[in-house]
From TrEMBL, chain A:
This is Ferric oxidoreductase domain-containing protein. Keywords: Membrane, Transmembrane, Transmembrane helix. The chain crosses the membrane at residues 34-53, 73-94, 114-132, 144-167, 173-192. Pfam families: Ferric_reduct. InterPro entries: Fe3_Rdtase_TM_dom. Residues 43-159 form the Ferric oxidoreductase domain. It is a multi-pass membrane protein. It comes from Albimonas donghaensis.
From TrEMBL, chain B:
GO terms for molecular function: iron ion binding; oxidoreductase activity, acting on single donors with incorporation of molecular oxygen, incorporation of two atoms of oxygen. PROSITE patterns: TAT (PS51318). It comes from Albimonas donghaensis. InterPro entries: Intradiol_dOase_core, TAT_signal. This is Twin-arginine translocation pathway signal.
Length: 205, 168
């Protein structure tokens, strides 16, 4: 793939993340929400933004963060994603316990909840998979570990995009759709690249 | 191979049945068609943040948003007068669980109720209201029902929800 100038890539990423966040910061809904609820909302938006960075790091597509450095950053951003999910769900729980309990028990009336909950479990599973990567790759082989990680990544991206798009919340429609489209494109690219890049020691065909 | 059109037909039939179920009660104004009117089921999440026994109020807070609806009897569809309906929502003036966000009203002779309340704003992803017919706070003796209607747009300034109650 043709390489774009590093400054352009970094600037584009900064805009792709900062613009939806900034526009969400001007949402009229914020006036009618308390600080804990607002923190929960922004944890969700930040989680969506991290989901754009994550596949780009995995694919080594960010200038200055290729190879080992990119993988280290990928792990840190992954930990940040877990933290964002915990904050998001925790703050919403404090805001309205019955709504979050309904969502977690998959009996919520809102169609987006089930996608959010699926993505949440996939994020937690990915965190565990990453935390025990050495032990798991020794047991299962790197190919199976990678395929599991990619599958969970795909589930997270799809779940979060559906969750975000169906919500009438603090994100503005166009910037939300734009960020979701970028997340989808980045995830698809990383998954396709990851499927192609099978390690020799793996169980790939 | 023939399974595909059959499945599609089944889906269409299910959709038609579902829309008949949803649209049915609204069209039942003629008494003759009201025979066998099915009771309203409690909606998912309808009772969330309910604070039982809110006072009867002329309006909730400053008003400006109209919540309205009707209450009828299951079976014959007769309008029910003097039935207590409690209403609450996340509005420009408060959260669902705030006591000031809750208010109750009684239906008139035509079975209609109206509540002037602050503008409902989206909360937890949807602009929605909550309504309760609570058997414990009404002497008419019907079964408890909780509704959770959703506005088609956050800029709507009114919302309606209808109850069809069955004797407890």
């Amino acid at each position: 793939m043709r390489r774009l100038p590093p400054t352009l890539v970094r600037a584009a990423l900064a805009v792709a993340i900062a613009l939806p966040l900034a526009v969400a910061g001007t949402s009229p809904l914020l006036a009618w929400r308390g600080p804990v609820y607002i923190a929960g909302c922004f944890a969700g938006v930040i989680g969506l933004a991290l989901l754009l960075v994550q596949p780009l790091l995995a694919a080594g597509a960010l200038p200055g963060a290729e190879g080992r450095r990119g993988r280290r950053l990928h792990a840190w951003v992954g930990a940040g994603l877990v933290a964002a999910v915990v904050l998001h769900v925790g703050a919403l729980w404090l805001t309205s316990p019955p709504d979050v309990i309904d969502a977690l028990l998959l009996r919520s009336p809102t169609p987006f909840s089930v996608w959010g909950v699926a993505a949440m479990w996939a994020v937690f599973a990915t965190g565990l998979l990453a935390a025990f990567r050495r032990r798991l790759t020794r047991r299962l082989g790197p190919g199976l570990w990678r395929r599991g990680h990619l599958l969970l990544g795909a589930l997270i991206a799809a779940g979060v995009i559906l969750h975000a798009m169906l919500i009438d919340g603090i994100m503005e429609g166009w910037t939300k759709a734009g960020l979701c489209a970028l997340v989808a494109a980045a995830a698809a690219r990383a998954i396709l690249a990851g499927r192609r890049r099978r390690p020799a020691a793996g169980r790939g065909r | 191979m023939t399974r595909v059109p059959q499945t599609r037909r089944a889906v269409l039939a299910a959709a038609a049945a579902a829309s008949a179920l949803i649209l049915g009660p609204r069209g039942l104004i003629a008494p003759a068609r009201a025979q066998g009117l099915a009771p309203t089921e409690t909606m998912r999440g309808g009772a969330n943040n309910y604070r039982a026994g809110a006072p009867i109020r002329d309006r909730i807070g400053g008003g400006g948003f109209l919540m309205s609806g009707t209450v009828r009897r299951a079976g014959d569809g007769a309008p029910l007068e003097g039935v207590r309906i409690q209403i609450w929502a996340h509005t420009t003036e408060g959260r669902e669980r705030d006591p000031e966000s809750h208010g109750a009203t009684l239906t008139d002779a035509s079975g209609a109720f109206r509540m002037d309340m602050p503008q409902i704003v989206p909360a937890f992803g949807q602009p929605h209201a909550h309504l309760a017919y609570d058997a414990d706070h009404d002497p008419n003796g019907f079964r408890t029902v909780f509704l959770r209607p959703v506005m088609s747009s956050r800029s709507d300034t009114s919302l309606s929800a209808d109850f069809v109650l069955q004797p407890a």
